Amino acid sequence: MADAHNKEVDQVSGVETTGHEWDGLKELNNPLPRWWLYLFYVTIAWAVVYWILYPAWPLVSSYTKGVLGANQRMEAIAAYDQGIADRSEFADKIVATSLQDISADQEMLQFALANGQAAFGDNCAPCHGSGGTGAEGYPNLQDDTWLWGGTLDDIHTTLLHGIRTTNDDTRFGDMPAYGRDELLSKDEINQVSNFVASKAGLDTDDGVDLAAGQTLYEDNCAACHGDNLEGIQEVGAPSLMSANYLYGKSLDAIKAQVTNPRNGVMPAWSDRLDPATIKSLTVYVHSFGGGQ
Description:
292 residues; mainly alpha; Cytochrome Bc1 Complex, Chain D, domain 2; 46% helix
């Protein structure tokens, strides 16, 4: 290995070596390009300037504040406050305007749709899906099957007060547990379930007395679901003739719901969102196309 005063020169490239060698491979002492070296020095200088101007170094219980006193947290809060102020004019108009007039005013409609879309993604999409298509136990907001009505006013009321919540004005429709509470026997549940399935176009069990099932339906179910199984929106009772069964459209699903029903809960958004956002959500959900 050559010493510092007598470095070896590579015969092929004509460049001095560093004196390091591994398995017969010698390291050439090629200097960094000048532009790269100068740029490196600039970044070091910029780091020093940054340390002086901006918060940088942690201390025992605080940190260096910097000459400029910059604070990204305060800047973010200021930007948020400015955003609220910028939208307040439209928000105030939304609150003061009827839902029908919002839909008829192009400028307010655009604001409501944009605001509603953001609110839907944050609050509603986890249950109803990003496109409002729903899932088992969560209604599809794009179809024309609405338990409590699909008009702008109906949707707004549902958003405000929720379903089966502690809100004083909540919408409350409760399906009795005919099996769990022993309101009907197992055979009677089988009969009425098969009757509903037969009317809905589903396969039924062989040998079941559908006439007895019809009588049981008329005595126990028709008051809410209607004589023709068409449902009654005023009490939140679904149509049993619809293709959109919330908990599955099959004979077994019908039996399970009659025996021990699942009664879902929707939050009352008046306790969580401001009036302008709730109105915007109403317009946005109605825009899915399934509204009445």
